[in-house]
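Your task
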Amino acid sequence: MQFKELKQEVEHLFGKIQEQASEGDLPELEDVKQFARYCSLMQTRADEEWAEEMDDFMQLVHQLLQNVKNGNTEEIVQLLGSLEDTKNFCHRTFGV
């Protein structure tokens, strides 16, 4: 999978997860697992200049996965906000 396609898949899954959470539903575990797998693959392809930010993003992704597994809805909402902020910072700063 090309980087551009990978990024589109990550963005699609993230939107789906956000939508589920905004409707008060627990995000589907399989969606979050796939999101984490794709993010991990992106991390392996990260340029040196944004690799550290990707590491921070991955910590949040792992926390999200754990909280979905545990059904912690309030934590999930906060983590999604943090993931959005981190993603926006990276895109704005590095043009990724």
In short: The helical segments are 3-22, 29-44, 48-70, 73-94.
